[in-house]
Amino acid sequence: MEEVDKDQEEASEPENQQDTRGASEKLEEKSCRSQPQEEQVEESEEIVTPQRILNLQRDLPTLVTNIQTAADAKESMRRTEQEKARRLRLERLENDAKSCEEHFEEITKGWLLANQKRTPQELQEALNNQQKLCSALIEDKKKLNNELQQELRVGDDRFVKDLRKHAEERDLMMERMEEQIKTLTKEYREELAQLEEVYQQESEVLLMKDKREWEQVMKRLLDKKQERQVQRQKEVEEHQVKMHTVMLKSSDKLNTFQLEHSETFQVLERKCLHFDTTSELARLEQEKQKYDVLLHRFNLTQMKSKTVSLKTEIKNLKAQFSSQEEQFAARSRQLPEHYKRNIQQYEQAQKKIKHFAGASVRKFEQMWLMIEEEVKQLVDKVLIIDSLICEQSLGIAWVRPNLPFMEQTDPTQKQAQSSTHQAVGNIDTSQGGQRMMDASVGPTLETDTDIINVNAYKEAKAMQSESAEDEEEGKLTNETLKKVMELLCDEAGFLLEDKLLNLLDPLEKEKQTVVKLGSLLSALGIKVEEVHRLAHFLLKYKPQQAEQTEDVCKESHESISKDEEMGTSCRRHVTSELIDPNHVLPALKSFLAQHVRSSFQHVAARDPSELEAYWESVGNIISEDKVDLWEAAERELNQYHVVLTEISELIPETQSLEQQNAELRMLLQQSLQSIVNTELEMPLP
Amino acid sequence: MSRSSYHPGANLNPAKDYRRGRRIIAEDPDWYLTLVPRLSKLCLQSIIKNFEVRQMFEELKPSEKEFVQEGLSTSLPLDVTANWITDGVYWKRCCEGRWDLCDVSHYGNSWKRMFFERHMENIIELFIPEVTETNKVLDLVPICKNYVKRLDITQLLPPIKEPQTEEEEDGLELLGNNEGPSIDHFNFNILLSKLTNLEELHLVYRVKQCGMNFEWQMFEMTDRDCESLATALKSCMTLKLLRLHESHIDDKKCRLLVKHLLDHPSLRKLDFSYNLIGDRGTRAVAKLLARSKLETLNMCCNEIREHGAKAIAHALSNNSTLLSLNLRLNRLGDEGGQAIGKALLNNDNNTLLHLHLGGNTLTAPTAIALAKVIAQNKTLKGINLSCNNLGVAGGKALEEAMSYNTNITECDIRQTEVDEQSVSFINQVVWKNKSSEKKKKTQENKSK
After folding, report:
1. Banded pLDDT at A444 (limits 50, 70, 90)
2. ipTM tops 0.90
3. CB contact (8 A) between residue B359 and residue A14
4. Helix (H) or strand (E) holding B324
């Protein structure tokens, strides 16, 4: 049975257990463990990585296998013990068997002895002995049995204990294995990390190295490249230069060749051209000749036609000229007639003017008187009104203001004087005019001019008494006058018409001047009697002129005058002294301006200041104070008028009211009467 | 899923049907026009739907295959899917649907292989002799045989209890008679010859989670089991690895198994760990070692004593294939250890890389013998002498030997009463060797 037990233990052998010895083993293990750890550290420092792992791989399993070996050792011990125990047991069993056999033999002998004994006591005794022996044997056996059973029990117990220990060991092994796995994985990881690091470093180092090498190589390469490039460039440049030179050479050659060619070509061309031009010239000459011929022919024909046309034109013009001459002759014949007719018309117009002038003067006087009368009446009226206002409305004693113009009619007389004066002038002129008209009745122009001159002379004489100017005029000799007139005619000749001049051409010089003067005076609107004045003015004009243009003209005047003195007569000298022919025109101009002015003021401004004063005195009968007074009075009176109108308006109302009152009174009386009547009647009926 | 709305049977709901005619369904916030699937998708869906009737897979494009694999129901019968659907998402879904832990790397990164191996394991593990019909397993064979490369059976159920209880005592009595009434487990004879791709077989004759119904027989391999298994193993020509552990194999059974395994053409690894094999059985294994091309032999935790060790040492002295020998937790003793040491020393063609002699009651003489081996041998890389009472002298010998050695990268001398200094020295040498080896490897890698 025990063997079976053993076998069982053996069967579950693979994991075995530890014992007291195992504990000591553990300590050793620990020491073992610490050692490799140190080594690990050292090795990790050395970075001899595989060795460390190897150590780990070697050492860690030993921890596990230690258990196994311990178990093995124990097993082997157990086996030896068991063998010993078995041997002992077997010996014991053998001994027991031997003793048992002895006992048995004894018992069997005892049985034989018992057969020899006859007496029951002896037999009883032998039986007892036998029984004792048997019981002893049985007891021995039992004892043995018990012992064996006890051993078996112990064995069972041990088995159970062993099983437990096995379990514990298994757990321990598992634990250790797990630990081992953990540490190993950790180590492997570290290892891996380190390896990676190392490799990284190595790779980095290598990379750096490679990079450096690469860079160096690249640098070298670049340098080489550059060198080569430079070389190449140089070569290229050389080649270029070569090429250039070659090109230049070739181009030169080409050029020279071309030049030669072109020269030859040009020579040829020139020859060719020469030929061409000669031929062309010949041709052109021919053509030109032809053309010239043609041109000449054409010109000739044209000229011929032109001469023909010109001839015809001349004829026409001649015809025209003759016709025109005829026309002009006819016209010249007609024009004197026309002139006579015009003069007649002019005389008639002069008569009419005189007539109208006398009529208008008369009308003016009448008008004056009438207006004056009206004014006087108005003044009276105003004075009356003033007096009324003053006396009636203001209660002021009215004094009649002094009115000189009311009594004296001098202004009219003065007016009459002036008008008579004018009228005398007018009459003179009219007389002159009539004389002129009488003279103009003369058949020819020459006589007419003579008459004019004579008249002018006479008139000048007549005017001598009337004004100082006239007196001075009188001093002027006829000759000087004549000279002046001539000068005037010469200077102002441009004013005359060309035709007239043409007409006058054939006449004598004196006649010419007379006609010219006449036409001039007529053109300037200067009357014949004013000729003396004009002459005088012209003579007088010089000093004015001198004053005006003293600095500018004096020397020239003197030089001129001197020159004139030298060459001309003394009369001429006088005239020249009187007036410079250059100053005739401006003098004439100024005279005309003056003349026109005076002629306009002739009537209107006879005595304007006097008239104005007269009319103002008339207008100022009522003084300004009075006017204010009047205005105030008017205002008052207007108010008063308004009041009066109101009153007048109210009057009919009051009248109506009075009437009403009267009616009412009437009614009252009537009613009173009626009441009385009724009262009276009442008792009556 | 939305599939239902496109299912012809979904016309039962008129409202839903009416909705299908509309372009916009405002009351449904999840509705989206683009959710209306494409015709190709609909076709694929119909293919998925009708996969049981008509299998269409190989004709599809890779993306479509993917879609089908995603869409197929995992509940489809295996005879439909097994030969039609290639390894991929579908099998992943099947695996993840059935088991929580799925480490596909253990199965050569093939979900299909994983599924079928585990499926078969499950069926065998839950097979109850005389209750479950053998057809259940046999039906599976044609489906699975192409995909099953390894069977890792962690339990084999015994027949139902009643007869078992009766026959228990008989069984015990008749253990040696070979005529016990049937308390045998699943008969591998019917299976192994048919699994043409099987390479590994891991077997444990035991019952998991037996609870209070514990009986020793549950953890035992019967003689008939052994016979049937032996013949089955012989018939399985592709087998490379046999692991039969914790199955109460004694000398007799071991001999029987080895007898059938002799001259096996492909067997490379043999694991009889945690059994009751004694010297006789070991002698048989040594014979096997001499006659086959075993590369790995694991006899740990058995009852091998000096005779067995001598037999193995004898076999080892002529062997030129074995790479790893594990005799942990046996009773070799100094005689056995010395014999092995001598064998290793004498054999020039030695290929042994790993030697485990832990827990074998070895003492200083063995250590001295092995020290010679360590000093001379150039192939040995790992040696484990833990849990042996080598003593200081042995440690010294080993230390001296290690100083000449350059190839041992593993040397376990824990629990051997060796002097601390020699332990540390040995460890240093080991580390040095290890690092140099690593360098070599890296150099080799680099040179490659």
Report:
1. very low
2. no
3. no
4. strand B324-326
